[in-house]
Specification:
about 45% helix, Alpha-Beta Plaits, alpha+beta, about 425 residues
Length: about 425
């Protein structure tokens, strides 16, 4: 077997390989002999069918399988001899103009290799570390959020105001004709939650149960329903019910709804504070990680094998379909396009390659004590932490996920040591992604 290699682009290679015909024919005969032991041929006992008859019946399949194996073996040997770090699978093409001979079959193998690079300098990169201390103020804000999540509404006789829950019936008309989607009966919404357009909510404010109002409304130019965008319509709305919000008191009953069985308020606050500190740390770590990954990508603008990107696109599409089906949707009704995932897939592949190189040169594989610490930290939120720890160690897949997280944390720490990190105070609402009240 002879082979030659030539560069086509920075990562693509073309390797000429040849398969000896005598070795191929021997492999074909061996396959046919193995097949004869199990296939049933009329008039012959298993294993006794003549090779010539087996070749007539199964020669095509035996040839195809033997040739595929021979090409794979030839390619693997040639790639190893030239020390190619092959990415993905090669594309095998017969040589278009083979020299007439009866000794070899000639092929071209087109494939990509992994990029070779040294991680770039990140000393000029800047990362902001969010800083937020959890105090009684943040605990009180969290309790207020929990109270609002458990709000109840009681009927009132006054006019509707912000935060009230109203039930309305309305009819919208354009040029005197009712338009599709512009009418509803007994429709509930909370004023100030932006369920309806601002001008619609403004018209409802101040109305009591049983009162009606007619008003003009101009739809925004970017309104989702195209035929209404920028149009002026007329609405008539009747308020059926006005209900004011009633927040639960912070008492023993409230504490019990949060899982504090004895209703102890101090214990409830302590648990909220502990959970809040863990969540704040998680969000700060996530922001640091995101910035660290961006710094790694910016410092390493490496070419990536398209083969790996395509594989990642297929994986992402399959995961998206699986997610839809888990939610009860028919994924066949949501056709997906590869280009939707291409940019994220390329980012993932690039990060994977950079991570692999950084892990190798920095010796950043997760250590057993780091893995244990992550598992125990996660187990703190369970009623029986030790049982949770045991279950993770007993599940190979779960343990591998934790190990990957620990290794990723090491890469982030390695990156932070090589960039300029400044601290920046962050508001509680901003870090937690809360809407202003």
């Amino acid at each position: 077997m002879e082979n030659t290699a030539q560069n086509i682009n920075p990562l693509e290679r073309s390797l000429d390989i040849s398969v000896p015909l005598d070795a191929l024919n021997t492999a074909i005969d061996e396959r046919l002999r193995r097949m004869s032991r199990s296939v049933k041929m009329p008039g012959f006992r298993p294993g006794k069918a003549p090779l010539a008859i087996m070749r007539q019946q199964y020669g095509g399949k035996a040839y195809g399988d033997a040739l595929e194996d021979a090409v794979k073996m030839a390619f693997g040997k040639a790639a190893a001899e030239q020390k190619f770090n092959v990415a993905g699978y090669p594309r095998i093409e017969p040589k278009p103009h083979q020299e007439a001979n009866d000794k070899t079959l000639e092929f071209s193998a087109i494939f990509e290799v992994f990029p070779e690079f040294v991680p770039g300098d990140m000393s000029g990169a800047r990362i902001e570390r969010p800083v937020l201390e959890v105090t009684d103020v943040e605990v009180d804000k969290t309790i207020d959020i929990l109270r609002r999540q458990r709000v109840r509404y009681n009927p009132v006789e006054r006019g509707a105001a912000k935060d009230d829950r109203v039930v309305v019936s309305f009819c919208g008309k354009k040029n005197g004709e009712a338009f599709e989607g512009g009418s509803a009966e007994e429709f509930p919404f909370v004023l100030g939650k932006n369920t309806m357009l601002p001008d619609f909510e403004s018209a409802v404010e101040g109305l009591k149960a049983g009162e009606s109002k007619a008003f003009d409304l101009v739809f925004p130019q970017d309104y989702a329903t195209g035929h209404l965008a920028g149009e002026t319509v007329q609405f008539e709305v009747t308020v059926k019910q006005v209900m004011a919000p009633a927040l639960p008191e912070v008492d023993a009953e409230f504490a019990r709804t949060l899982g504090v069985e004895d209703g102890d308020i101090a214990k409830m606050r302590a648990e909220i504070e502990g959970n809040l500190k863990r969540e704040v740390k998680k969000r700060i770590d996530a922001r640091l990680k995101e910035q660290a990954l961006d710094a790694l990508l910016n410092a390493n603008p490496i070419p990536v094998p398209q083969t790996l990107v395509d594989m990642e696109v297929r994986n992402m599409m399959e995961n998206a379909r699986h997610d839809l089906e888990k939610r009860g949707a028919d994924s066949k009704k949501f056709p997906m396009q590869p280009e939707w995932f291409a940019e994220r897939a390329k980012r993932r592949v690039t990060l994977g390659l950079v991570f692999a190189e950084v892990i190798k040169i920095g010796g950043l594989r997760a250590r057993p004590e780091q893995i244990r610490a992550l598992i125990e930290e996660a187990a703190e939120t369970y009623e029986t932490p030790q049982e949770m720890v045991k279950s993770v160690y007993a599940n190979a897949r779960a343990l591998a996920d934790v190990e990957n997280t620990a290794t990723e944390n090491n890469v982030v720490a390695w990156t932070l040591e090589r960039v300029t990190v400044t601290e920046k105070a962050v508001a509680f609402e901003e870090l937690m992604g809360l809407q202003p009240v």
